[in-house]
Amino acid sequence: MPMNGTGAGTRLRRTVGLLILTLLSVRAAAQDLVLQLDPARTTIRFTLGASLHTVHGTFQIKTGALRANPASGKLSGEIVVDATSGETGNGMRDRKMHKEVLESGRYPEITFRPDRIDGAVAAQGKSSVKVHGIFSVHGSDHEITLPAEVDIGADHWIANAHFTIPYVKWGIKNPSTFFLHVANEVEMDVAVAGTLTRETSTSSPVQ
Taking CA 153 as the corner, what is the angle to CA 125 and CA 158, rounded to the nearest 5 degrees? Predict the structure, then answer.
């Protein structure tokens, strides 16, 4: 029985379409996402529970650059926060925080060095992932995994993360007094944004 020309043409188009999609997927998997953070569009907020009131404050980011490979989950780079920029809107409280708690004169930077992403990262659009890495504060390194919502665009990206820092467990002084009891953990809300470029996959960390 002769082959139906229309049916053969449809199958051929489908096969070609699948081949193109496969090639595009392979090409995307071989690309790294180079992510630069924009300090002007990045916010770092913290919330510390206390017996009389809840303390809210902010930090400023200094620099940040990451390289991610969505196919392998590898992530490298560093985010640097200015520890001396921490403020809560109360001068006396802030001076105590910097002198007795953070000791920011001695430890002026807080850094996060990620090493992997757990979860699928869409080439474009929104993804829910977990980011594993080393959080360095007050002169000590701590392994941590942060849940994050990431939105990848053609040339930009944004990410939001909420996580808890057990600062007392990490060896940082609790500022409680006889009249004021302060929680042993601080809640962090981080929103970052910046530019994105796509490069051929490499094992070299971002500079």
Answer: 85
Which residue ranges in the chain fall short of pLDDT 70? 1-30, 201-207
Condensed to tens digits (0 to 9), the pLDDT of residues 179-196 reads 789 999 999 999 999 999
**Which pLDDT score is estimated for 205?**
47
Helices (H) and strands (E) in the chain, counts: 2, 9
CA dihedral 167, 173, 174, 179 (to 10 degrees): -170
The model's pTM is: 0.81
40 secondary structure, DSSP code: G
> What are the structural domain ranges in the chain?
31-200
Number of Cβ within 10 Å of residue 68's Cβ equals: 27
CATH of domain 31-200: 2.40.128.110
3-state secondary structure of 18: helix
